[in-house]
Write a structure and sequence with these properties.
The protein has 502 residues and is of the alpha/beta class. The protein is built from 16 helices and 20 strands. It is globular and about 70 Å long. The chain binds nicotinamide-adenine-dinucleotide.
């Protein structure tokens, strides 16, 4: 190690030792200190620290190709890069977006593995697929110009970038969310500063470096996608409050959704869900069972759109449970469900409410089965079982491959219970039915962003269904399944009394 590098490491360690430790309840626990909101360490920290091994195991060079230790440096770099992006043509932007998609596909196996190793949640086959399908994310083709001409001239409406967008990404899909956000946002002319989840930072940083390196090689822009490492609550706050960030895009659970909604600047919030499934007596039960297994087992039920609880009418309930087993589900009895519930949730004495035990989030069905006191083959994708409506697994967004089934008298009760269990998130709901009236009634009353009929949840994001993909579904703020247009400012040009050619 050379002298300069030793000095850098010592300076960095001393700086971090002098900052406040994070609390254990925070998602940043273990992230180790971080610069507090309002505090700056600019004088102590060299901007470029090539080759520095990060004290928190990031193990990547910092201060180049998008990976920065300080929010200010990341924002400065992203600001410069966004200015350069604006000098490129729309075709060049298109080429950058395609490059990102190509790199994600090319590296899907490796990055999927790195993400699973780091986050320890989900399934490798689906981690890989979530990167491969990034080609379904829309790019510059969504930036349509609207024009009208008439007696008084011509009016053109165009969609301009915001500038540098601050993004927060979840641990459930760290690289996919960052990549899909990047595709959308760069297509519309923006650059990015990301505060990833602390447990999904390394995999995100690896992708960020590769994307920027490739973009720099072809277009001479090295920091279109930047990331702050290690991310802390303080770095998130700095991004929330920074004058150089005109727009926030937050993808995550209830805590960060609330924080973003309270921010002093515009925030697009892709918040939590608890998607219910209704199955009525007219449904094709084979198709329903197959879809529920497919959707709820996808990445071990980490998707915010994944099937989380089922309401089935009693006349076909037992038959549906049989079909669930035929399609790869394993049925738990009530004492096994009790044992799993005790392991998978803990009641916090502070609020007396159940909280999901992170050790079970995104784990394989076999791990959950062990906690339930039953052995299942490693091939088992999903556990299922009958519970009542008030059950913790029905009310909480469990994000693990056990789905509770609630027996209801009829479709009316199924719809009512399903909507109540969704808790007003307006995120996702699903139905299996051939009765158009029931489908329509549930769709109207549920009033969700994504409503999937007779298919698995992923069909709603283009995987086995029509439509495009995004990993950020803006629910409380209403933008829906995000596209490049979501991240633009409307601008109008009015040419009076001329340019109408016909
Ligand atoms: P999480 O809420 O624990 O973390 C999400 C991100 O927010 C992380 O980067 C985390 O570090 C950060 N964060 C948490 N509290 C914060 C605060 N107070 N201030 C600033 N940043 C904060 O969620 P997770 O476990 O990473 O992801 C799963 C959750 O995200 C689920 O609730 C799921 O439904 C939701 N989600 C929603 C969508 C969507 O498109 N609507 C997509 C993916 C995940």
């Amino acid at each position: 190690m050379n002298q300069a590098l030793v000095e850098d490491v010592v300076t960095e360690v001393m700086r971090r030792l002098s900052t406040r430790p994070s609390t254990s309840s925070s998602p940043y626990a273990g992230g180790g200190g971080g610069v507090r909101a309002g505090e700056t360490a600019r004088a102590e920290e060299p901007k470029r620290r090539e080759g520095l091994r990060h004290p928190h195991g990031l193990d990547l060079p910092m201060g180049e190709y998008g990976v920065y230790g300080r929010v200010d440096d990341a924002i400065d770099a992203a600001t410069e890069s966004q200015k350069k992006l604006m000098k490129l043509s729309l075709d060049d932007r298109d080429a950058i977006v395609k490059l990102i998609k190509q790199l994600a596909k090319q590296n899907a196996n490796e990055w999927g593995k790195v993400e699973l190793e780091e986050t320890k949640i989900g399934r490798l086959d689906h981690k890989i697929e979530k990167l491969q399908i990034l080609e379904l994310v829309p790019g510059v083709e969504f930036l349509r110009t609207n024009a009208t001409s008439g007696t008084n001239g011509m009016c053109i409406e165009e969609f301009a970038p915001f500038g540098v967008i601050g993004i927060i990404t979840p641990v459930t899909h760290s690289v996919p969310t960052l990549s899909a956000n990047a595709i959308n946002m760069i297509a519309s002319g923006n650059s990015i500063v990301a505060n990833p989840h602390p447990s999904g930072t390394r995999c995100a940083a690896i992708a960020v470096r590769e994307y920027n390196r490739a973009i720099a090689g072809k277009f001479g822009i090295s920091d279109l996608i930047t990331l702050v490492a290690p991310p802390t609550l303080e770095t998130a706050e700095q991004i929330f409050n920074h004058r150089g960030i005109p727009l926030l895009v937050v993808t995550g659970g209830p805590g960060v959704a609330r924080a973003a909604l309270a921010a002093k600047k515009r925030a697009i919030v892709a918040g939590p869900g608890n998607p219910p499934v209704v199955v009525d007596e007219t449904a094709c039960l084979d198709r329903a069972a197959e879809s529920i297994v497919k959707g709820a087992a996808y990445d071990n039920n980490l998707l915010c759109i994944g099937e989380k609880q089922v309401f089935c009418v009693e006349s076909v309930f037992d038959k549906l449970m049989e079909k669930m087993q035929k399609h790869g589900g394993h049925l738990l009895n009530s004492s096994q469900i009790d044992a799993l519930t005790r392991a998978a949730f803990t009641v916090d004495p502070k609020d007396n409410k159940p909280h999901v035990n992170k050790d079970f989030v995104g784990r394989d069905a076999a791990v959950l089965a062990q906690a339930a006191g039953v052995r299942v083959s490693p091939a088992t994708q999903l556990l299922v079982g009958e519970t009542d409506f008030r059950h913790t697994f029905v009310q909480e967004e469990q994000m693990m491959p056990f789905v509770p089934f609630v027996r209801v008298r009829n479709a009316d009760e199924a719809i009512e219970r399903a909507i109540e269990s969704e808790h007003g998130y307006r995120h996702t709901a699903l139905i299996h039915s051939r009765n158009l009236e029931t489908i329509t009634r549930f769709g109207r009353q549920a009033n969700v962003t994504l409503f999937v009929v007779n298919g698995a949840s992923m069909a709603g994001l283009g995987l086995g269904g029509q439509g495009y993909l995004s990993y950020s579904i803006a629910t409380p703020t209403g933008e829906g399944i995000t596209t490049p247009l979501t991240f633009t400012r409307y601008r109008r040009v009015m040419i009076t009394d001329s340019l109408r050619m016909v």
